[in-house]
Amino acid sequence: MVKTTLLKCINQTMPMDEGQLWLNNKTPDQLGIPAWRSRVMYIPQRTVTMEGTPTDFLEEVRKFNVHKNSKNTQDDPVQIALDWGVRPDLWHSKWSNLSGGEMQRISLAIGCSFRADILLLDEPTSALDEESCEKVEKTLGQLNCIWVTHNPHQAERISNAGTLVMRGGDNSPANSLSGVVVDQHEARGNGKANGSTQGQNNPSSSSSSTRTSH
Prior knowledge:
By secondary structure, the chain is α/β, with parallel strands linked by helices. The chain has a single domain (3-213), classed as P-loop containing nucleotide triphosphate hydrolases (Rossmann fold), CATH 3.40.50.300. Helices cover 34% and strands 12% of the residues. The chain is built from 9 helices and 6 strands. Strands 1-2-3-6-4-5 form a 6-stranded mixed beta sheet, with helices on both faces. The radius of gyration is 17 Å and the shape is globular.
C-alpha cells in the first residue's frame, strides 16, 4: 500500500477491503462520513488549481453543513498563514497566480483553521524552503497529525508520539490496513504512541503527531 492510499482510506475517500477505524470509540459509520472527514481531515500534497481565489474557496467550504453546524471555534487561516510568511493580500489572488509553496501553505492554513481532531498530511512541506518548513513544523507540531514524509530528518524532528514504519510497498494489498504498520518504535518523552491503525479490534482515538516513513 502506498502512503497516500493509506491516508485516503483513513479519511474514507477510498474504500478499505480490510481493517477498522475508530475515533474516540466511534467508527466512520457511527459518526457519519461527512463528520468523519471533517474530524479526520485529509490535506493532499498538491492543491488542485481551482477557479477563483483562496478566499472564495474558504467561503464555500464554510458553507458546508458539517462546518456550519460544528461546535468547534474556527481559527483565522489568514493569521495562520501569515505566521508562515504568506501575505494577507495573496488570499485575494487567483490560485493560478500563486506559487507552489504559497498554495501549499494556504491549503494547510485552511485545514488547520477548522480544528480537526486529526490532520492527515501528505508531505505537507514538500514545496517549502527550509525557513518556511520550520515555521509550519512548529505549528503542526502542536496538533494531532498522521504525517507522511520521505525526509528522515524531518521525520525525526516532528515525531513526538512514535514512528510507524511502513514496509511492503506495492506488494501489500491495495486497500488494506491490516499489517501495513509493522514496526512501532517507542515514543520520546511519553513512553509509547497512543494509537495506530492495524486492523485490530481495539478501539482507540489517535492523538499526538505520528509519522510514516520508509
